[in-house]
Amino acid sequence: MIFVQLDCDYDSDARLVDAGPYAELLYVRGLAFAKRTLSDGHISIGQLAIVGRAIPKAVEHAQRLVRTGAWVETEQGFHIAAWAKRNLSAAEVNLRSNSRSMKANHARWHTGINGTPSPDCPLCVRGTDPSTTPTDLHIPTDKDSLSLSSVIPIVEPEPEPEPEPEPEPISSPLTSSRETKTLDQRVRDAVDFHAITMSVNAKVPLAYAGTCRSRAWGEHRDDLRDYALEHPDDTHEQIATAVLGTTLVTAEVREAWYADPHCCDCGGDGWKNHAPEGSPSMLGQCDCRRAEPYLATVHPIGRVG
């Protein structure tokens, strides 16, 4: 937020009193407009429509300010007579802003333990303590007759030392990222093969494949990795067959059978795991299959089967 200076006794100024209340309002608005736009107190004819909005006959009131000496008429419009008395020029405002930005950038990036002096920064002077910031260093302006290079020496960048060669990593089948990635990919391929194969004849193949994939990955991932590591030449089909007991299944000719939608063993898809607990999965037909459809039943919780 920016502010413009306005004397508390401005309403007693003879130039504004003689110009009238509308001209006084135009003058105050002109101060704010010139400060906001950094126009050095200049207001063009076109901008007068903005400054004098809702003021009847704004041009006439601007002429009154000119007659009393509050404004000065120019070729482009008007100029606030006393602007330079209490306000910095646009060049000075920009210079101060750039100076603050330069000092902040210097303090953040070029000083302190982790700071690195920059040859492009005027504040980075050779021999200056990097933990301090020279706040009293003169920053030349357009009014200075000396060039920037004559006031602040240019620091030539020192050549960067060549990086030392990194030691070659110790090759190990257990620590090599490339081999580990290949191993993990083989395990994932084996799990996918197992899931797709075992869901060929499922009632809902996609859902059942997801269940098989999650179960095989969660329960047998370590066994699959160990086997794949010990048998680097085996394909993912061989890995799945050896660890998960996966066998190729041909799509059966679908007979008219129905599974109990509330079966605890198969969940309604007609397939269950016949393997003992802790052994690889062995999917087969569930005992709830039958030729007649199951009648819909209403359960106490309100779910319809």
Strand order of the largest sheet: 1-3-2
The N- and C-terminal alpha carbons lie at a distance of 68 Å
Count structural domains: 3
Regions with pLDDT < 50 over 5+ consecutive residues?
A: 126-154, 167-180, 298-305
Structural class: mainly alpha
User: Which percent band covers the strand fraction?
Assistant: 5-15%
For the residues shown, what is the average pLDDT?
75
Report the radius of gyration as a whole number of Å.
43 Å
**H-E string:** HHEHHEEHHHHHHEE
Total beta-strand segments = 5
Q: Total number of helical segments?
A: 10
Helix content: 40-55%
- Give the oligomer, counting copies of the same chain as homo and different chains as hetero: single chain
Main beta sheet: strand number and arrangement? 3 strands, antiparallel
Q: Based on CA inertia axes, which overall geometry fits?
A: elongated
Record the SSE blueprint:
Layout: H1 14-19, H2 21-37, E1 42-44, H3 45-51, H4 58-68, E2 71-73, E3 77-80, H5 83-86, H6 90-109, H7 148-151, H8 177-198, H9 205-230, H10 236-244, E4 271-273, E5 283-285
Antiparallel strand pairs: 1-3, 2-3, 4-5
Question: Which labels suit this protein?
Answer:
mainly alpha, 10 helices, disordered C terminus, 3 domains, three-stranded antiparallel β-sheet, two-stranded antiparallel sheet, about 300 residues
Describe this structure in words.
- Helix content is about 40%, strand content about 5%.
- A hairpin with a 3-residue loop joins strand 2 and strand 3.
- It is elongated and about 110 Å long.
- Mean pLDDT is about 75; it is low at about 125-155, about 165-180 and about 300-305.
- It folds into three domains: about 10-85; about 90-140, no CATH class; about 175-285, no CATH class.
- The protein has helices at about 15-20, 20-35, 45-50, 60-70, 85, 90-110, 150, 175-200, 205-230, 235-245; strands at about 40-45, 70-75, 75-80, 270-275, 285.
- The chain has about 300 residues and is mainly alpha-helical.
- Helix 2 crosses helix 4, helix 8 (about 175-200) crosses helix 10 and helix 9 (about 205-230) packs across helix 10.
- It contains ten helices and five strands; from the N terminus they run H-H-E-H-H-E-E-H-H-H-H-H-H-E-E.
